[in-house]
Every structure is written in C-alpha cells, then in structure tokens.
Amino acid sequence: MKTTTETMGAITVAYTPETFPALWETSIAKPTCPPNGALIRTLGGGLCGTDVEKIQQQKVPEGTILGHEMVGEIIELGAEYTPDSTNPETHFTVGDRLVIAHHVPCGTCHFCINGSPSSCEAFKKSNLSPGGFASFFAVSQGHLHHTCFKVPSHIATREAACTEPLACVLRAVRRVGSVKNGSVAVVGLGFIGLLASQTFQLEGWQVLGLDLNPQRLALADVAGYCHAVAHPSQQESQWQSWLATLPTQKVDVVCLTVVNEATLALALRLVRNGGKLLLMAGQGKSAIGIDPNALYYREIDVVTSYSPALEDLQRAFELITTRTISLTPLLTHPLLIEQFTEGFRAYTQGEAVKVIFSFAEDGALV
Predict the structure, then answer these.
(1) How many other C-beta atoms lie within 10 A of the C-beta of residue 251?
(2) Burial of 101 (0-12, 13-18, 19+ CB in 10 A)
(3) Is 204 left (phi over 0), alpha (psi -120 to 50) or beta?
(4) Residue 1 and residue 129 in contact, taking contact as beta carbons nearer than 8 Å
(5) Model pTM?
(6) Is 184 exposed, middle or buried (0-12, 13-18, 19+ CB in 10 A)?
(7) How far is the C-alpha of 330 from the C-alpha of 134, rounded, in Å?
(8) Which of 30, 94, 226, 279 could form a disulfide with 6 if both were Cys (CB 3.0 to 4.6 A apart)?
(9) Are 11 and 20 in contact (CB under 8 A)?
(10) Quick check: bond before 130 cis, omega within 30?
(11) Are 255 and 280 a contacting pair, CB within 8 Å?
C-alpha cells in the first residue's frame, strides 16, 4: 500500500522483560486511501484477549500494530468505491461513524459455503491496514460491503466496539444448537463469559456462572447475567445444589472461556452424558492432555468457536444498537490510547472486565 510522509500515532508490539507493549509511538507512516476502499480515523477500540496473548507469547513480529475491535470515522472514500447494489446500508459517506470487523471471507470457497468462514484463505489474508491501534487505518471495499456498519447516534463508540466479540459469542451459541430446557455452565466470567451468559439467557437457557474472581461473580449476580453464580471450589455446595434442580443433575453444555487442566476437569464433572464442551479460548503454548475415553464413552461433543461469520456480525450489531445486550456494566476501563500500558496491566492482572481505548481528538471517551 502506498503511504504518505505524514506520520501517525500507533501502539506497536515491543517485547520488554515484562512483555508489556511499548508506549505511544509516532513513527508509523499514515496510509493513503485505497482506490475502492476508505481511510478511517480511529475513534475507539477494545483490547481483546488475543491481542494480549500475541504480545505475551510473542506470536507476532516486534513492531506489529494490533487492534481489531474498532470504531472509526470515514475521512476519505476511494474514487472507485461502489456500494453493494444489494445492500443500501453500504452507501457510506465521509463523516460516517462505522464499526469495523477486520476479516472478510470470500463467501464462495468450500470453507465458506460449508459454514467455516474463519478457515477461508481470503478471511485469513484480509485485515485492517496497518492495524486498529493506530490513529488511521485503511479498509477495502470488501470490508465496507460486509463487515462495516454505520453506528447510530444513540450508541456510544465504546458500545459499538463490542460488536466483533459479541459476534464471536453468537457464533459459539449457534454452533452449540438448541437444547430443550437447556442448561449451561459458563466457566470464566470475563468479558466473553459475561456476554455468553447473557446470550444463552436470551436463547432461553438456564445459566450457572463460575469464576475465581469475587468481583466478577458479584457483577454477574447483581446484573442478573446468570441464574446462579459460584466460586468453583469455595462454594461447591452452592453449585451442586443448583445442579440438583436439573433433569440430569448436570448441565447440557459447559462453556469454557478459560482452558486449562483444572477447567477441563471441572467441565467433565459438570457436563451430562451426551452433552457438549464449548471451547471459546485457546491454551497458550503448552498442550493439555485429556483422556479420550472421558469423551468417547460418555458421548461428549467438543465444539469450538474462534471467529464470527458475517451473519453473526449483523446480529451482534442489531443486539447492541437495540441495547438487547447489557454492555455498560462490563466496560470497566474506558481509557485514552496513551494509557495503553495501564489498560494492558489491568487486563492481565484481572482487574478489568473490558478495556476500551479512546482515540477522540478532544480526549473525550465517546
């Protein structure tokens, strides 16, 4: 991509002894507008667990600009941009505030037509350029046609930035499928876990929330995101009593937002025969052993969800703009982008449920 000599601020990955990212940088070349795309001024964006994982585990080259849960303003449209003739919502103009998801599947390959868009080669190759944690980034016509949505005035930037992570949750719930009188245990009540708890409730499921963090348990309880909450070990009698009210005394699905040997062992205690384990997180560098007999003889299915499909993005945006999903209590750390290190520390130390960074020129957290 061509660039101008103008530079812009960006948060880049830099590996220090503490593996925290570098502070605000100003030596990134500002991209030009693609002929059929748009140039976006960043307004705000969320810190994702995958961003943290990539930094801590050095999964990307030093100097990489991360950030993909973004909201921005169109400051230039390419001269060759044409709206999608089947979608009037893609008639964008300069000044529009958009929520923007970073990957665009082709829609026609074997993966796409069989419900696996995140395995599509076009999906993997597409991205924001240079990355969301920059003052400006460019998007393609494919992004504008499929993964960009105009944010209405009543929705704050920090709310709109939650579209992509909510879409990940919606795809996970959709992949689990429907269960009559369904029950689910959500293990890990961070941002994704609390979104999953709400979504399962919205679909009519009974929800048990489990977490080691008492503040998150209290938030889930007070906000009503779960039918019951408990510490996995300190309050075992509490969740065992809740399980006793279910037809099989175990849940139909265990949703794991934290995956390690302890949570997998807990999941196998919680899930009924013929139930499902829903994995919504990876497990870093080390492998975890699991006895296949524990799955085979009990006919337990393993379901995963890594990234959303286009239909999930659309529904997530609708749920957010109608405020069907409660977000405000979850957005615990609204910070300026210059406070990136502070937000990173708050996330890694378990203080934050969700960190949202603002790029507003006047310093306002919009």
Answers:
(1) 27
(2) buried
(3) left
(4) yes
(5) 0.93
(6) buried
(7) 24
(8) 30
(9) no
(10) yes
(11) yes
What does the domain layout of the chain look like in residue ranges?
3-162+331-358, 167-304
Residue pair 105/127 in contact by the 8 Å Cβ criterion: no
Class assignment of domain 3-162+331-358? Answer: alpha beta
Per-residue pLDDT of the chain (366 residues; tens, 9 = 90+): 344 456 778 888 777 656 555 545 556 788 999 999 999 999 999 999 999 988 888 888 888 899 999 999 999 999 999 999 999 999 999 999 999 999 999 999 999 999 999 999 999 999 998 999 999 999 999 999 999 999 999 999 999 999 999 999 999 999 999 999 999 999 999 999 999 999 999 999 999 999 999 999 999 999 999 999 999 988 899 999 999 999 999 999 999 999 999 999 999 999 999 999 999 988 766 677 788 999 999 999 999 988 999 999 999 999 999 999 999 999 999 999 989 989 999 999 999 999 999 987 654 556
- Cα separation, 332 vs 352, in Å, equals 6
Q: 116-124 — which CB contacts under 8 Å span 24+ positions?
A: 117/307, 117/309, 117/310, 118/306, 118/307, 118/308, 118/309, 123/307
Beta bridge partners of 255: 186, 278
The two tokens of residue 25 are: 């940088």
Q: In this structure, what token pair is assigned to residue 278?
A: 């829903």
Give 34's DSSP letter. Answer: P
Which residue in this structure is represented by tokens 């076009």? Answer: 122
| Look-up of token digits 């699991």 | 290
As a whole number of Å, the end-to-end CA separation of the chain is 30
DSSP, collapsed to helix, strand or coil, labels residue 103 as coil
Burial readout 29-41 (b: 16 or more C-beta within 10 A, e: otherwise): ebbbbbeebbbbb
Domain spanning 167-304: which superfamily?
NAD(P)-binding Rossmann-like Domain (3.40.50.720)
C-alpha span between 268 and 257 (Å, rounded): 15
List the structure tokens of 365: 């957290």
Backbone conformation region of residue 128, classed left if phi is above 0, alpha if psi is from -120 to 50, else beta: beta
Count of other CB atoms within 10 angstroms of residue 88: 8
- Closest by alpha carbon to 251, among 185, 300, 295? 185
Find all residues with CB under 8 Å of 114, minimum gap 6, and list them.
none
